[in-house]
Design goal:
Keywords: Membrane, Transmembrane, Transmembrane helix. 70% of the residues lie in helices and 0% in strands. It is built from four helices and no strands. Helix 1 runs antiparallel to helix 2 and helix 2 packs antiparallel against helix 3.
Length: 129
């Protein structure tokens, strides 16, 4: 019988704070994806551009916080090393920060398509263990 190592880092935690740090990226990913959904509960007309303009900073900041939390979690569970995955995290974070600084819809689209391309390449080349 072959023992497979745990796919999560919960076995490497010693305190509740460590476990909370491991949960943080999942919670932030949920908040980030929920922030993208528009709020159409109001009685006014549905204007996706206006809704994006109103929520743009929140959307980008929650995705940037998610990237920071994955980086911090990697450091805390002692799996941090400067490899391709770390460079991908830093690259995505840099694109998100540039989106915050430029405030251009055209750059937002370019950065999002670049991030999606990076993630698709990363997921399709990831080794399954």
């Amino acid at each position: 019988m072959v023992l497979v190592p745990a796919l999560d880092a919960s076995s490497q935690t010693g305190t509740v704070a460590d476990f909370g740090l491991i949960l943080l990226p999942s919670i932030l990913l949920f908040v980030a994806t929920a922030s993208v959904l528009p709020d159409f509960s109001r009685e006014e007309d549905w204007d996706m551009r206006r809704d994006y303009d109103e929520q743009r900073r929140v959307i980008i900041l929650t995705f940037a916080l998610y990237q920071v939390s994955t980086f911090v979690t990697a450091v805390v569970v002692s799996r941090m090393e400067w490899d391709l995955l770390s460079l991908v995290r830093v690259g995505i974070f840099a694109l998100l920060v540039s989106m915050l600084l430029t405030n251009s819809r055209r750059w937002d689209w370019t950065a999002v398509i670049t991030i999606m391309t990076i993630l698709v390449v990363r997921l399709t080349t990831q080794v399954i263990r």
